[in-house]
């Protein structure tokens, strides 16, 4: 009875909080926008240094546990083995954690840095180098180390210590069982639910805008609210259906298929694109990324202008921290039986390298057009101004552009379905007292809530403010994740290795 009561309290309080936020953001959009912008500006201005340090701390933590004496410990019993093949596991965690963002920003972000760089002249070879180095920093090893903190700690406590599948379970060694199962634990889980809902809803909305933009660019289908609602309804049926069918069936099938589609899309784009420039850019970008890693990761001006840093790096770090509970819980759920070292290598190194390869291929599709003078800089500025259509505008300049754009839309839909059904699964876990196989009625309910909120926010034009307020609300997760690192190390020191 007590278990049900605690699970229900997290569910009802989270639902109430989300309903209030949804009504505020839709009905009183102006005040919601003002408050969210002010909160985010305050946090990134006054605490920008903390975001930078936090990401380095998370990286040091995962390196320490992966390559120290605890690396051989399994996330489960000593005789347990992984539930999923390496390819399926990678497809699930990549689709959940990064796929959506990479499709959206793969062309647009490097091009933006190329045309609006820091410290070098715009639209020059030096600006192209800056663009790649910045992209690698934003999508490389640090975001994945951030995801691994919650993922590793929760997988350890769930599968090796038989704890609930809740973020609050991680903190038990530090705060004790009573507080972890009491008001403090519930507060942590409610924050995790809110961050997950806000993150998935804004991504669902932004993805809908990009799919609509692609359809207009290719087929002349108008960019209207009705079309966007139809897209959300179709995607919703698919992601709710796949979530209900479970990880082993629906989620796995979509994830596996999309992994092959995304790899195929990237390979063909490499072949029709500027091959030598992509290879040089990848190698040079990797060298600059590694060589300048610490100065870039901790770079913040004392007296100068930090507006670029706030708009890009700090925004990304806040966004990835906001996604950490969602992605972390899902990665934990699919990682039973792996060793700690295997987990870190698979969750941090492999996806980071894949993200950098993706950025080199798609980023140079856009930058090459400017460097070779194929497309006027003014036209490329349009791509930067409307990032949701940027991918399709750039692809049309290359052979097979129309076909590649259609494949890109399919891949985008699949990545969004993977993210959304992972989100439904995590929300259902967090609101059923950590049940790793939550009931279907919860999955359906959370799926509908996400879709209705996305439609409401598109009607109000309020996607950006919700994203911004979610970043501000996720600020406490910096400290929760610090605590998770400490709790994990405290617990693992009792292991006999």
Summarize the structure.
It is found in: Cell membrane. The protein has about 500 residues and is mainly α. It has 22 helices and no strands.
Explain what you see.
The chain is an all-alpha fold. It has a single domain (2-492), classed as Amino acid/polyamine transporter I (Up-down Bundle), CATH 1.20.1740. The protein has helices spanning 2-27, 29-46, 48-67, 86-105, 108-115, 125-139, 141-159, 167-170, 172-180, 183-219, 225-245, 247-272, 275-291, 293-297, 307-333, 340-371, 377-385, 387-395, 401-430, 440-460, 463-473, 476-492. Helix 3 (48-67) packs parallel to helix 15 (307-333) and helix 3 packs across helix 16. The protein is globular and about 65 Å long. It starts with a helix and ends in a 5-residue tail after the last helix.
Structural features:
497 residues; cell membrane; globular; disordered N terminus; Amino acid/polyamine transporter I; BCCT family transporter; transport; mainly alpha
Mean pLDDT across every amino acid position: 89
The residue ranges in which pLDDT falls below 50 over 5 or more consecutive positions are 1-7
Number of helices, where a helix is a run of at least 4 consecutive DSSP H or I residues:
22
Q: Kindly provide the name of the CATH class.
A: Mainly Alpha
Query: H/E element string?
Result: HHHHHHHHHHHHHHHHHHHHHH
Structural class: mainly alpha
Overall number of structural domains = 1
Task: Please state roughly what percent of the residues sit in beta strands, choosing from under 5%, 5-15%, 15-25%, 25-35%, 35-45% or over 45%.
Answer: under 5%
């Amino acid at each position: 009875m007590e278990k049900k009561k605690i699970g229900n309290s997290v569910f009802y309080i989270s639902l109430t909080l989300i309903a209030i936020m949804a009504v505020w953001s839709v009905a009183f959009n102006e005040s919601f926008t003002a408050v969210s912008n002010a909160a985010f500006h305050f946090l990134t201005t006054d605490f920008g240094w903390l975001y930078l340090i936090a990401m380095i701390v998370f990286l040091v933590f995962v390196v320490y546990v992966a390559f120290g004496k605890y690396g051989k410990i399994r996330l489960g019993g000593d005789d347990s083995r992984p539930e999923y093949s390496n390819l399926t596991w990678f497809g699930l965690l990549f689709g959940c954690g990064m796929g959506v963002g990479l499709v959206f920003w793969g062309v647009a972000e490097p091009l933006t840095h190329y045309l609006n760089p820091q410290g070098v002249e715009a639209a020059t070879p030096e600006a192209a180098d800056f663009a790649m180095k910045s992209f690698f920093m934003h999508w490389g090893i640090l975001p994945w180390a951030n995801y691994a903190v919650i993922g590793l700690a929760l997988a350890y406590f769930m599968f090796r210590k038989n704890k609930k599948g809740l973020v609050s379970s991680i903190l038990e060694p530090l705060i004790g069982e009573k507080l972890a199962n009491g008001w403090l634990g519930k507060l942590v889980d409610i924050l995790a639910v809110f961050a997950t809902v806000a993150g998935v809803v804004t991504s669902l909305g932004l993805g809908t805008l990009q799919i609509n933009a692609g359809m207009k660019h290719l087929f002349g289908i108008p960019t209207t609210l009705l079309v966007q609602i139809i897209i959300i309804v179709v995607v919703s049926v698919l992601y709710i259906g796949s979530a209900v069918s479970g990880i082993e069936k629906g989620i796995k099938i979509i994830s596996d298929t999309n992994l092959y589609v995304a790899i195929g899309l990237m390979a063909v784009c490499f072949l029709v694109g500027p091959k030598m420039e992509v290879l040089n850019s990848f190698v040079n970008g990797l060298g600059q990324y590694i060589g300048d890693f610490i100065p870039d990761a901790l770079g913040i001006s004392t007296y100068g202008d930090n507006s670029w840093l706030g708009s890009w790096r700090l925004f990304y770090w806040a966004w990835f921290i906001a996604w950490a509970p969602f992605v972390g819980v899902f990665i934990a759920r699919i990682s039973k039986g792996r060793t700690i070292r295997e987990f870190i290598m698979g969750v941090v190194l492999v996806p980071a390298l894949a993200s950098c390869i993706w950025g080199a291929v798609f980023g140079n599709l856009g930058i090459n057009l400017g460097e070779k003078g194929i497309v006027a800089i003014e036209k490329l500025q349009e791509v930067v101004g409307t990032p949701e259509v940027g991918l399709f505008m750039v692809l049309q300049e290359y052979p097979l552009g129309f076909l590649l754009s259609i494949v890109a839309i399919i891949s985008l839909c699949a990545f969004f379905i993977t993210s959304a059904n992972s989100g439904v699964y995590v929300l259902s876990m967090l609101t059923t007292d950590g049940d790793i196989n939550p009931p279907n009625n919860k999955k359906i309910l959370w799926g509908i809530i996400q879709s209705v909120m996305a439609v409401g926010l598109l009607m109000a034009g309020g996607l950006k403010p919700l994203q911004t307020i979610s970043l501000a609300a996720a600020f406490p997760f910096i400290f929760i994740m610090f605590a998770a690192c400490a709790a994990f190390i405290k617990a693992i020191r009792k292991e006999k290795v």
